[in-house]
Write a structure and sequence with these properties.
This protein is an alpha/beta fold. The protein folds into two domains: 3-210, 3-Layer(aba) Sandwich (Rossmann fold); 221-301, rRNA adenine dimethylase, C-terminal domain (Helicase, Ruva Protein, domain 3, Orthogonal Bundle), CATH 1.10.8.100. It is 42% helix and 17% strand. A seven-stranded mixed β-sheet has the order 4-3-2-5-6-9-7, with helices on both faces. It has a two-stranded antiparallel sheet with strand order 1-8. The longest helix is centred in the last third of the chain and has 23 residues, at 279-301. The relative contact order is 0.10.
Amino acid sequence: MDYNSTLNLIKNLLKNAGTHPKKSLGQNFLIDQSINDLIIESADLLPNDIIIELGSGIGLLTRQIAPSVSKVFAIEFDSDLFGILQSYCKGFDNIIPINDNMLEIDYAKLLSDLSPNQNIKIIGNLPYYITSPIIFMLLEKSKSLNIKSMILMVQKEVGERIVSSPGNKSYGSLSVAVSYRCKARIIRVVPADCFYPKPKVDSVIIQLEVQDKPNVSVKDESLFFSIVRGAFQHRRKTLRNALILSIQSNKLKARLESLDDAMRSLSIDPKTRGENLSIDQFANLANMIYNTDIGHKHKNHS
């Protein structure tokens, strides 16, 4: 189907349902069929796969995915689009339409009936305004839900943040969180012209391959992520000062002495900023603080 045919189909489906794209929900419909083909190719769909499609919209991509996999959970928050989705995907008994907020679904319950050998793959055209919370949520659940991969359409700027490396302005807590659990790459840039209505920014298709075990070894994940969040929450401050603020606000449960000892032992300049630390350095810092604090607790209890 070419641009015009897809655009006319979308417009007709919306018109017949008496609705229109809602800017407040970040609704932009993909009209370039070759991009949908590329998403499907990149997802490497297998007959036993279970797909969670986030932001299914009116179901164009959903219908393309369904013949190749075991089941598609098609999640759409907007009631108007959900009505179209249900109707447009009626002939497929392996598409399960779900009208809910993708951030609030109990995914463990949703997937409770699946056999352990079924791989979960995420495909989604994420609304720009909640992209980061969704990715953080998926990363957090990736191990317990057995998520193998994610093919996501995100704003170009967010995609660049995800694959960014230390020393870049776009490098941040999202970069570290993704590189902790996944191998990430940008598959291609998708220009704004490929959508209806046309957004103000370009997008990218990003692939996140979830690794069997994290890419760095940490003794306490909660401590590790508290340090990462603290370092980037006050990114204009030096690393030491940013982490002191996190300790003072009780968001980072560590002692100042442990922080200073760890930075000294690892030869981390206290005046550097979080954006200059690699994921390995964050892991080493977290592990050193963990060891020092555990030693301190044992000493106090003896």
